[in-house]
Design goal:
The chain contains one helix and 19 strands. The protein has 281 residues and is mainly β. The chain has a domain at 13-107: SH3 type barrels (Roll), CATH 2.30.30. The strands form four sheets. Strands 11, 12, 13, 14, 15, 16, 17, 18 and 19 form a nine-stranded antiparallel beta sheet that branches. Strands 1-4-5-6 form a four-stranded antiparallel beta sheet. A hairpin with a 5-residue loop joins strand 17 and strand 18 (262-273). It starts with a helix and ends with a strand. Residues 1-18 form the signal peptide.
């Protein structure tokens, strides 16, 4: 009998821990404010009568459809490594205002408008991927994408990795200058971060030219207090030490040994941009 109660206790603790984990992650990149506008990211997103995946489907909305968040429901749905609340929304379609519930994972993490184009950033799925150091281990890897839409037409889309659920506590999406790169109209930067020690953050730069999205190599940063860190960045032509039509990848890492001595390592790569694509120098 004692062993039964021990097992039951451990099961309850595990269940509560999992629920708490879902709550924490769901209040990350998919945490949207009430009475704020938002946009649909996933095409053919289903609008349901209640916050449940089995609830009646009332409608479906296309990518870039603007909605209004009315209320965040406490119900959380997990698909792969994506955890998100359901939201009650209001939207305009065919000159009619309607309401319903949408899963937060189908909404944009961020969106921007520039020069007549809508740029959307969101997460699309979770895949199983073998660990580089331990091939026998499969890890859950989130996939994100950035879309460019003109009116109601999808112009281009690129996908990239964004780490595990732990790296989805915080997300940003911004438009930057062309960084003085030939033929580049503007630069997009999508970021997700764990905002905690030992949890990686990812920066994805994407160049926009001639209605095409060109993703650059992804940057990863991680650290744990003053024990170790690994940082990656790009130096663009518009930076002080920048070179025309060249961007430089710089990496630096530090780790302390058992005697608290710092061991540092630096590396760099030079990429040449020809106005259409890039390559290693």
């Amino acid at each position: 009998m004692k062993s039964f109660f021990t097992v039951l206790f451990l099961f309850i603790i595990q269940l509560l821990s999992a629920q708490e984990e879902d709550y924490v992650y769901a209040n990350g990149v998919f945490n949207f404010e009430e009475n704020k506008t938002q946009k649909i990211f996933t095409d053919w997103t289903r609008i349901r009568q209640s916050p449940n995946v089995n609830a009646q489907i009332m409608d479906s909305l296309q990518t870039n459809q603007q909605i209004l968040i009315l209320k965040k429901d406490e119900t959380i749905l997990k698909l792969g490594e994506r955890r998100a609340n359901w939201y009650k929304i209001s939207y305009q379609k065919d000159d009619k205002t309607s309401e319903g519930y949408v899963w937060g994972g189908n909404l944009c993490v961020g969106y921007r408008n520039k020069n007549g184009y809508d740029f959307l950033f969101g997460l699309t799925k979770t895949i199983n991927k073998k660990d580089k150091e331990y091939p026998e281990i499969n890890i859950q890897q989130n996939i994100a994408s950035v879309k460019v839409v003109e009116g109601n037409t999808l112009i281009d889309e690129v996908s990239f990795e964004t780490g595990s659920a732990e790296s989805l506590s915080y997300g940003t999406f911004n438009i930057e200058s062309n960084h003085k790169l030939q033929n580049v109209e503007l630069t997009l930067k999508a970021t997700v971060s764990g905002e905690a020690c030992g949890i990686a953050s990812y920066d994805q730069y994407i160049l926009f030219k001639d209605k095409k999205l060109v993703p650059l190599p992804q940057l990863m940063n991680v650290g744990d207090a003053d024990v170790y860190y690994h940082t990656e960045e790009f130096v663009f032509p518009n930076d002080k030490s920048g070179i025309p039509n060249t961007f430089i990848f710089k990496m630096e890492e530090m780790e302390k040994d058992e005697k608290d001595r710092e061991k540092k390592k630096k590396a760099s790569k030079v990429y040449l941009w020809n106005g259409n694509s890039y390559k290693l120098k």
